[in-house]
Structures are given as structure tokens and as C-alpha cells.
Amino acid sequence: MSAAAPPLSHRKAPKWLPYLLVSPTLVIVLVFTAWPTVQAVYMSFFRQYLNFAKFRTPTFIGLHNYRELFTSPDFLQVLKNTAIYVAGTVPASIVLAFLFALLVNRAVKGIGLARLGFFYPTILPMVSAATIWMFFFTPDYGLFNSLLETLGYHGPENWLGNPHLALLAVMIVAIWKNAGYLMIFYLAGLQNLPEDVFEAASLDGASWWTQLWKIAFPLLRRTTLFVSTIAIIDAFQVVDHIFVMTQGGPSGASTVLLYYLWQVRFEDQNVGLASALTVVLIVIMLAITITNFVLSEREGA
Amino acid sequence: MNSAKLRKRLTAVSLNALTAVLAAGWATIIVWAVVVSFRPSSEPLGRGDVWFGHALTFANYLKAWSLAPFGIYYRNTIIIVGMILIAQLMTITLAGFAFAHQEFWGKKAIFFFILLQLMIPAAALLVPNFSTIRKLGLFDTTLAVALPYFGSAFGTFLMRQAFLEVPRDLVDAGIMDGCSWWQLLWHIYLPPSVPTLVAFALSSISWHWNEFLWPLVVTLTERSRPLTIGLVRFTQLGEIGARWPLLAAATITVIAPLFLLFLIFQKQFIRSFLHSGLK
Amino acid sequence: MSLKQRVFSLAVLLLVLGLALAACGSKATSTPAPAATQAPAATEAPAATAAPKPVTIEVYYPVAVDAPIAKILNGYIADFEKANPNITVKPVFSGGYGDVKTTIQTTIEGGGKPPVLAVMLAADLYDLVNAGYVVPLDDFIKAMPNGSAYINDFFPAFMANSRYDGKIWSIPFQRSVVALYYNADLFQQEGIQPPNSWQALAEAAQKLTIPNKRWGIEWPSGWPYWLFQPLAIGSGQNIVKSPTEVVFNDPKVIAAVQYYIDLSHKYQAMPEGVQKNWGNAPADFAKGAAAMIVHSSGSLSGILSQAKFKVGVMAVPGKAPGTYATVTGGGNFYMLKGATPEQQQAAWKFIEFITQPKYAADFSIQTGYIATRKSAYDTDAMKAYIAKVPQAGQLKDMLQYAGAELSCMNLGKVRNIFHKYLQAAYNGQMTPEEAMQKAQQEADKALEMFK
Predict the structure, then answer these.
(1) Under DSSP, is residue C66 helix (H, G, I), strand (E, B) or coil?
(2) Same domain flag for B112 and B54
(3) CA pair distance B120, B129, nearest whole angstrom
């Protein structure tokens, strides 16, 4: 927050005016962020199944839901999948984003088209993108397999049905979609760098990449910190493509946290367990945003 | 030509080639969808035959529209996105103004409280928010999809920053002239902040046009379902199967308006996304 | 601000205004009354002479608003209202089976009034009864002049998921079975007889496989329990026994899992692992990339319209020679709690009306679902149709081999457990034995609290 003092206070405005002005925003945050957080914590101590009359009334069961979660092999697999998903998509998107930014940050004819090519996935709905990607992953004649085949790949082609590939497939789609979005932040960062960085780099063409990697990337540390926060949060909250491509399968191999939360609440109708999962997710989210806050404070505003 | 120059030239050429290959690869997705959406459905795809058919046809689009009420989905998406946009533009302007221009007790605390929305993304709160919507009696309405977004911590923050950059002299002059608070907001604060507002609006439109999980949970029938849900339901219709031309046509139908808008106003879009990320 | 920016801001402003207007002008209007009166007045006698009190009943139905089935149903409703002028039927079409169930769930939990009737999955029986959403239908059936004849006219296989606790809870309406589709022209070319056992099926599939060009058989398994069930039944043990008892670890079930795996590993006649091709399989079959597929009977009309060869349908061969198996699926009419007695009477009248042989036959002809009543197949319309599309008759004949669809308490959870381990076995992550033992353990745990 910048410390600029607001102008002279305004005589004509009544005292309650500022409260009135912020009230709509405040009410929304209260009702849809603060209250639900409290409610989730509260409900996580209860057993409530909506599909059975006798378990529909919430019964207090203490920490049972949490105990059930952390001893359930399903949940442990979900945590593992989520970790792989985040640890895989985030760095990959960032490296690609940086590469793309470097490539399109050159004054070459037609570079605008390339920038467009990298960025356009950002404005596609994830479900549309995933629908098209389904075709690319089709065994036998899907384009992704054809491409891999020409590159000498002869492994399994059944991406979405294979337990070792399904998660990778949804990760590929996420990386494809995110890299272009993250690119624009690097692009903006690069454009703010002093000219001589690029001159030094372009003098010796062969080491173009190494130089930029060694000079520009470190200079863009703040951008990277920022970009990784967006990417991490995104990785936790976008599961749309899983609904379209794998429904979390096969055998739960591509089920990640938010998708699991949806399943427990809306398929199993288990409100208590879903609330406990919500609390887990909130804790993770808070940990990420607070870490980011601390790190960027340390970097110096 | 000396060797350094040659090398530089070679690097440039290979970088161009790399750029071209990567960009083409990235674009294949949409290009394929467009091409195949015009392929006659009587020619199923097969090994090595996945692009153009023997003719171009518009039939897939007509068929897609006849199988699912895309018109209604369009209407719902537009209503949802429109409601959110109008509400947000008002709430963030007013709140941003209060935080930038006015002093009041508890200002800092309230500001930080509002920023809570940035720390806990709405997606995580799906379950409790769903029961709130139900208790409010809003289940399966377009308002249910839109309501949680009527206030935006991020937008408020953006507008506050924009208003803080309005020169003090201008504001003071306005006050001297006896402007009321809303005249001050309307004539002095808002005009220089329009670009910020537009940037926020664009990213809000694209974000909510594309949203899936929240509407999936709070909508049920055609009376409130947006395009994204409509598309997914369409792909699951038994009769659709793997008729890719039909699926591609449906997908393009959903993408088209935003995509065209994006092609025309590419720079504004990119700037808006840049803004919306820079906190 | 540059010119372009100005123009742009203006455009955004106009868009916003336009949206505002659109938002104001579009209060959701209810579906317009059906204009169609395609069929002449119904055979049912007109309502009693003394003008009865007007009644309105809502019926939830799992299709999209303007899907063909919605139009067909609107026609039937118009007929019904003509025959019963005091009853108004308000259909609500809402997407899929899951949506109908969710709507009812949310309405009831929100303290609202659910519809009087709904078509929901036959397999959801126990969940619906245990949730306390539905009422038994026995009183209405008993009140009929020949209630037991009415019930006995439904194919017993379709009634399998209607009875619980000594009562009848639902009336079959939109039903299907699992079928084995085969390319009859290819069979003839290769001199292959329609298979009558697992062994024969595997050999036929093997013979018809051409590597990289054509699979002998495709058997989707992205959502696998339903298409798997004919194997278990054909092996001599269905996977469900009672509302609180599933049978996953019986040696016969394990043998069925092994057979599925053998089709790809041993005979190399089927794609390996989990086949995420529910939609692709009929397309592959129609274009000749698969010589046989196992799929829903509901895919028949789509396949017939695309295939350029003679299409054969039959039940899935069983393990022992000369045995066959299939499983039923689809939706039944349920009556929901909370309606007035008049509404319930009207609703029952509607069920009786729409399940008449005449309508059952017409619905089957127009949609491809199997007519639920035996007498529907005696109607002239149906006879003419079967003369034209003999496959439709063959699908009906398969009902004699049909077992009940997986249905038990806590169904969502139990089904997910079964899917998880069945797919693990298909994908070779576990042996069939190991996978089914684990599935049994977890399912038993999920069912324990409901015993």
C-alpha cells in the first residue's frame, strides 16, 4: 500500500458515506469469502450425507472427517497427484513462458502472429480447449500420437485411459494453455530491462540463450516470483479439463484436489468430508499467498 | 561477411525457425478445430485423414445448434457476464474512491478484510458457497452464477491505485469549486482512470465467459446454464459420440465471439491481462 | 487516449448497455405449451362426467429442452390432456439423469415442493427410497381393475430394479440393454457364425483383427461397470445381490475380468487397457475400424444410419456354450413425496396412459429405446417397424438373458470403488484377483453403515 495521504477531507460528504461506498464490496466478501470459510470449518466437524434420510441431519463427530481423510488411500493418492500436477505444470509453463517471451521480443516481421499463436489459449474456455485436445489424444488417429510417432515414439497411445499417462495428458493441456498467459508478464519485464542486456546477448549469437538465461532471467526474479504465484494458484483452482477429458480416471490416476472435492460433495453427497477437504484447500491456498507475500516483501517493494 | 556476423545471422534464422515451429504447434489446436468444423460429417476421421474432407460444409454448425439450445446458452452467458461487469464497475469504482479519497475509521482494517478475497480463491469455497446460494433461493438462476463476483477485491485495489495517481491539484481545485463527492468522482477521478476500468472489464469478461466449475454447481436447467456448461453437456449427448466435425463446430460456436473480439483488440486484451495480474 | 482506444471504450460501453437491456428483458419464461397434436385423440375413455377439479402435475424428464425426445413427449402429453381435460401436465426437461436427481434433491432440501413425477435411473432405486424422496406405487396398482396383469405385462428384466422391501417403487419407461453389435457382412465373408460362447467370441474377434487397421472388438471401459456386467452375468455371477451386498470377489466375477483382459493380451483382438471410447466405438464400428463392439442398445439407430454394411445385434455370449447375457439400464417413472392425493391420482393416470402399449411402441420406434411392455410388440405399428428394422426385435429378445443393473445403497460410492479397481485390473496395475478382493473390502466398508 502506498502511503500517499488522501486529500483534504471533504466537508460536504457525510461521515457515513465511505461506509456506504465500500459496503457492496464488503458484503460480497463477507458473504462469499469470510462466512463460507467459517462455515466450512464448522461443518467439517459433522457427519452429513445428503443421500440418506437418516444421515441427513448433521451429527457432531469431532475430528472424524479429518481422520478419515488422512487415512484414506484415495485422499493420499489425490494429494500425490496434486503435487505432481503442480510441480510439473508450474515450472514447465514458466520455462516455456520465458522462452516464448524471448522469442517474440524481437523485431522480426510476423512476430505479432507468433505472439498471437502463443497467447490465444488464454482467452479460450478451458472446456473448449479440452474438448479439442480430446481428439489430439485419441488413439490410432489422434494428431498428438501421429506427431509423437514421427518423432520416433512407439509407446502406448491410449493417453486418457492409461494410468501412467492420463495425469500427464491433463498436465500437457494446462501447460499449453498457461504458457502464453505467463509469457506476457515476462514480455513486459523484458521490455523494462535496460537495452544493453540484449546488446551484450546479441553480440555473440551462439550464446544468445545462455546469456539471456544467465542475465535476463535473474534480472526478472520478481517477475518469476509473481508468475509462479499465479501459476501455482491456477494449478489448484482450474480442473475444468479433467471434467472433460478423464473424469479423474482411470482408477483415480488423474484426480486432483479440487476435482476430488467436487466428487465427494456432489457425487458421494458427503457434506462433512467435503467441508474437511475445503478446509485443507483453504489452508494450502493461504500458505501459498502468505509465502508469496513474505517473499515479495523480502525482495523489497 | 565476418564469422561473428554470420553466426548472428544463423542464430536469427534458427530462432525464427524455432519460433515458427512452436507457434504453429501451439496454434494447431484452434486451426484443426476450425478446419474440421467444416468437414462433412459423412466422412469420418481416420489415420492420416484428419483435416479437410472432400467438401466444405456449414451443416455441422446447423446440426450442433439443432441438437442443443446454444442460443439460450448464449443469452445466459451474456446475462451473467453483463451482470457481473456492471456490478463490478460500480462497486470497484465506489469502493476504490472511498479508499483513495476518503478518511474513515477502520479504513485499513476494512481494506485488508476485503483483500481476503485474493487470498482464498472462490473455487476453494465451492461447497459452502453452494449451500449459501441454495439458502438464498437462487439455485439455478443466472444471478447465482454472478452474485459472488459482484464485489472484487482486486478491482477495488486497481481503482484505488488509479485514483491515487490523479493529481492532487485537480482534486483540490474541484473541492474549491464546491463539487459534491460524486461530481468529484465523475468529473475528476474517473476520466483519467478509464483505461484501468477498461483493462479490468476485459479481463473480467474473458474470465467469466470461460468459467465452468461454479456454474456447473449452481445451475441446472437451460434457464441459467451458460455456454461452457452447454458445451460439456453437448459433448456428452449420447448421439454425438466421436463425431469430431460436430464437436468442433460446437466448440467454435462457444469460442467465436470472444475470440473475434480478441483478434480485433489484441493489444488491449494483452494489456488488460497484464494489468489483471500485476498486483 | 488514442482513437482506437476511444472507439474501443465506446464499443465496451455500448456492449454494457446492450447487456443491461438484455438482462432486463429476459425474465425466464416457462416452456410454451406444446402445439403439436400429432396423434389423434387417445384411446382412453374421456374423464368422468361431473367436471372434476383441475389438477396440475409437474413431470421432470432427463433430456435437453429441444431434444427430439422432448418433442415426442410433448405430443403424448397433449394427447393425455385432451383425454383428461381437468389435468394439466407440466413437463420440465433438464439435461441428464444426474440433473433430475440433483434438482429434486435441492428442491426437497431447500424445503421446496418437488415435482409429482420424475423419470430417474432405475438403478437409483435404493438411494431414492433411503433418501425418503419417493413413494411406493402398490396402492395405485391395487386400485386398478387388473393391476397385477398390468405389472406382469412389463418385461420382468425391466422390473428387476423396481422392487424393494416388498413394494413396487417405479414403472419402467425409457429402457435399454447392453448389446453386442457385429459386422454381419464381415462375418459372412470370413465364414464366421455369431459367437455362442466366450471362446467363440474371442476366436471370432481374433480372426477379424487386422493389426493397425481393424480391431476384432471394442469394449468401452471409461465408465466400465455397465458394459462389464454382461461378462459377470455370463460367467454365472452378477455383481449385485441385495441392496447391501455386492459380489466383486467371486471367482466367477474374477474370471470375467480376466476374460476381458485376455481379449487384448491373449487374443490381441481388442485395444489394450481402459478404453476411453464410449463415443468413438460406434463411429469406429460404422466406419469398419472395429468388427464388433459392445455398446448400449440406444446406439442402434445411430449405427444403422452410418454403417454401410449389414449390422447384427445379439446378447453378449456367456462363458458356457449356448449361454448369453446382458444387463438392463435406463430410467423409470418415480412418484415423489409431498404431492396431494389428487395430484398423485392424476400422476398415476398419466403413468398408465403413457405406458399403454400404443405409446410404448411409438416411443420405442421413435427413440430406439426398448418398449417396456410385452403387448407393445403386438401392436401393428411395432410389427411393421420390426419388419423394417429386425434388429429392434432382436434387442427385445435379448431381455430373456438380462440381469439387473448394479444398484445398491450408497451407489455413487460403491460404483466409484468398483470402477477404480476394475480399471486397475484392466490396466494391469493389479491382478484381477487382487483388484476384486480390494474392491470387495472397500465396498463392504462403504455398505456397512447401511445394513
Answers:
(1) coil
(2) no
(3) 13
Of A22, A43, A117, the CB nearest to B27: A117
Terminal Cα-to-Cα distance of chain A (whole angstroms): 10
Helices (H) and strands (E) in chain B, counts: 14, 0
Is A29–B92 a contact, with Cβ atoms under 8 angstroms apart? no
Contact across the interface for A163 and C429, Cβ inside 8 Å: yes
| Number of domains comprising chain B | 2
Task: Report how many domains make up chain A.
Answer: 2
**Is residue C160 domain-shared with residue C245, that is, in the same domain?**
no
Nearest to B23 among A118, A184, A278 (CB): A118
**Cell numbers describing residue B119:** 487470498
Determine contact: B29 vs chain A, CB below 8 A.
yes
Q: How many helices and strands in chain C, by DSSP H and E?
A: 19, 13
Confirm or reject contact between B246 and chain C (CB < 8 A). Answer: no
Per-residue model confidence as pLDDT tens digits over C270-294? 999 999 878 888 888 998 999 999 9
Is any Cβ of chain C less than 8 angstroms from the Cβ of B159? no
Query: Would you state the pLDDT for residue A193?
Result: 82
Domain hosting B130: range is 68-236
Same domain, B8 and B90: no
Enumerate residues 6+ apart whose C-beta is below 8 A from C112: none
**Prediction pTM value:** 0.86
Which grid cell is B266?
Answer: 489484441
Say how many domains are in chain C. Answer: 2
For residue A214, the enclosing domain spans 73-299
Q: What does R_g of chain A's alpha carbons equal in angstroms?
A: 24
Banded pLDDT at A201 (limits 50, 70, 90): low
A6 to chain B: nearest residue by CA?
A: B101
Is pLDDT above 70 for C19?
A: no
Looking at A60, A89, A113, the residue that finishes a domain is A60
* Any domain includes A287: yes
| Mean pLDDT score, B4-10 | 76
A22 closest CB neighbour out of B98, B172, B216:
B98
Partners of C117 in beta bridges: C59, C335
Smallest CA–CA separation between C304 and chain B, in Å?
A: 12
CA separation for the pair C163, C157 (Å, rounded): 12
Same domain, A199 and A228: yes
Domain encompassing residue C109: 55-175+329-402
All three cell numbers of C91, joined, read 413437463
Residue of C nearest to B232 (CA): C95
pLDDT at C48 over 60: no
A161 touches chain C (CB under 8 A): yes
DSSP run (H or E) holding C179: strand C170-183
Mean pLDDT of chain C: 86
pLDDT band at A155 (very low <50, low <70, confident <90, very high): confident
Lookup: cell for C41: 385423440
Give C-chain residues touching B238 at CB under 8 angstroms.
296, 298-299
Give the chain B residue whose CA is nearest to the CA of C23. B79
Strands (E), C94-168: 117-121, 163-164, 167-168
pLDDT in tens, A254-287: 999 999 999 999 888 899 999 999 999 999 999 9
ipTM reported for the complex, 2 dp = 0.92
How buried is residue C49: exposed, middle or buried, by Cβ count under 10 Å (0-12/13-18/19+)?
exposed
Say yes or no: C218 contacts chain A, CB-CB below 8 A: no
A39 and A96 fall within a common domain: no
CATH number (domain holding residue B166): 1.10.3720.10
The last residue of a domain, from among B58, B82, B97: B58
In the beta sheet, which residues pair with residue C313?
A: C181
Residues of chain B found within 8 Å of residue A39, distances taken between Cβ atoms:
128, 131-132
Rounded to whole angstroms, the Cα distance separating C233 from B223 reads 42
Cβ B151–A27 below 8 Å, yes or no? yes
The subunits that touch chain C, with at least 3 C-beta pairs less than 8 Å apart, are A, B
